[in-house]
Amino acid sequence: MSGDKRLWQFHGGMPLPGHKRVSTSIPLEATGIPEMLIHPLSQHVGSPAEAIVAPGERVLRGQPVARATGYVGSPVHAGSSGTVVEVGSRPVPHPSGLSADCVVIRTDGEDAPFTGYDALTNYETLNAPALRARVRECGIVGLGGAAFPTSVKLNVGVGLKSLILNAAECEPYISCDDMLLRHRAADVVAGAQVMLHALEIRHCCIAIEEDKPEALEALTARVAEIGDTRIEVVTMPAIYPAGGERQLIQVLTGHEVPADGIPADIGYLCQNVGTAAAVASAVLRGEPLISRVVTVTGSGVRQPRNLDVRLGTPIAKVIDACGGYTESARHLIMGGAMMGFPLNHDDMPLIKATNCLFVASAEDVRPRPPEQPCIRCGECARACPASLLPQQLQWSTRAEDFDEVEALNLYDCIECGCCDLVCPSHIPLTQYFRYAKTEIWNRRQERARSDHARNRFEARKTRIDLEEAERKRRLEAKTRALGKASQDEDTRKAMIDEVMKRVRERKTPDSAEDTRE
Ligand code: SF4
Ligand code: SF4
Prior knowledge:
By secondary structure, the protein is an alpha/beta fold. It has a domain at 21-358: 3-Layer(aba) Sandwich (Rossmann fold), CATH 3.40.50. Helices cover 37% and strands 17% of the residues. It is built from 12 helices and 17 strands. The chain is elongated, with a radius of gyration of 35 Å. The protein starts with 28 loop residues before the first strand and ends with a helix. The structure holds iron/sulfur cluster (2 copies). Residues 374-380, 390-391, 394, 422-425, 427 line the site of one iron/sulfur cluster (SF4).
């Protein structure tokens, strides 16, 4: 445990007002089970899950309703018992605003459990693939907001030095990890132990910002209680965005993750503390991921707080559980004030990635002053925690020079918004970078589609050419065979003629004798 561990600094970033206490004064509680649960099939990074239930089917709490497809995939489980009433398209919380396929369950109030997953309390006797399989079948994904399948992240191979559990929670207003640690520190620490075993390493660092004293106390008390010397708790200054994976590793270790690499390349693996608690539930109690802690905050909601909510609960019901909207509510945002994205309405479900619902008033989200030309002051580059050149990135994006945008390491941009905050010309830089990422993705998709079409065309042409060649070969063979048969026929006819001739010749003297008699 350490409050005096040597720490490093990352480039850029800034201290921001936390606004955490807005939502931490009321203890964590679970919400009730809503009448309807809506489970999107795609609520994680990777391939969407595939529904394995049909309307009319009864399901139990925790029963899989959609199976994972592909290596980077995750199944989806029923949030409570009831009857499947629909498998179809519904609005889902996504920056695109598009709808997506969902399994809709009318709950029966019984909350009857599925018992298909044993508690693996003997996990220390199991090997890494068995533990990863359990994490995958229980649908665990990163709960810090990225929703990357945890089983894939745990499959990093050998050479790892340390597991880092991220409790920094640097974004203003969000306090779900803080409240999780205050109430369920034992689960987080147990999850760390399970992952250490699965990764076959002997060091875990749980990193927490110093503005969460209650969570820090609960965490350090639990680590001291179990006396596991492999686990170290480290406090760090509250600098936004220290909770970014790359920034956190740099603060803790002084090492930078290469621009085109991942933390495992330099020996580290980061997981969110909520993910660790979910891993502990899946392995030690056989509980799939069917609920999560979510912060509901902002001056647009009557009773800001944290709730443990069943996944699939309509967002409107979650807001109701917090006393509903205030008169001043203007914007509903999924995620925090800095990195979240707006939702058009609340008739959509809470998903695995929903760490925060921020209901902002007009005061909270003041209109941005009109954009002015860039004055090349360089403030954006000084503030960027990813050491990017936002000014150049913006120019290249405007020019639609996406090769240059990629060369400027756009994909290292974590969309933290620091550059926006400091830009004296009020240029919405982060919006440009989101647009550039979407555009590059669309173009890649388009290129992939045309490559696919060209490959199909070429494959078809090759097949037709081969068939034609085969047809010609057969024809020639047949012609040759016919020619030979015709020759054989001529030979046969000649032989018959020869025989007939001989017969006639033999008959001729006899006939003469007959005549003489
Ligand atoms: S939004 Fe991107 S470019 Fe801007 S400061 Fe953050 S990481 Fe850097
Ligand atoms: S902060 Fe704004 S004005 Fe200054 S260089 Fe960056 S984009 Fe230009």
